[in-house]
Amino acid sequence: MNNSKEEILAACAAMCKNTLIETLGIEFIDVTDETVVARMPVNSTVHQPDGVLHGGASVALAESVGSMASVLFMKGQEVSIRGIEISANHVKSVSEGYVYAKAKILHKGRTIQLWSIPIVNEKDELISMVKLTTITLKK
């Protein structure tokens, strides 16, 4: 990556203005050559009716971080990234604080990418384990 981590994270934030990512309060907080990390606040805006994190919000977090990772790892190529398959196992509930999603590439093809995205709470306990497949399309 040619830009500084701060510049990359600022660009991620700018791309997310007026999107679901911003609506859910998702923030990109770390990026390396191998991973992208985002966090999401857990509060009533992402709760299901019984007061715990909605699985759909977890999946939205995971797809957001995995898709952003695909965008970043394509290194400025003129492409569109789309999630084409996602699966999630929700193993623990959480009702407050933050959850953190860390996308790590399992397969980095020119067209298809496969991501492993564990979501953990502030104690680093696994909340959900997500697998995301993205496709890179030429613009």
TrEMBL record:
One of its GO terms (molecular function) is 1,4-dihydroxy-2-naphthoyl-CoA thioesterase activity. InterPro entries: HotDog_dom_sf, PAAI_dom, Thioestr_dom. Keywords: Hydrolase. Residues 51-127 form the Thioesterase domain. GO terms for cellular component: cytosol. It holds the Pfam family 4HBT. Belongs to the thioesterase PaaI family. This is Thioesterase. It comes from Pukyongia salina. The lineage of its organism: Bacteria, Pseudomonadati, Bacteroidota, Flavobacteriia, Flavobacteriales.
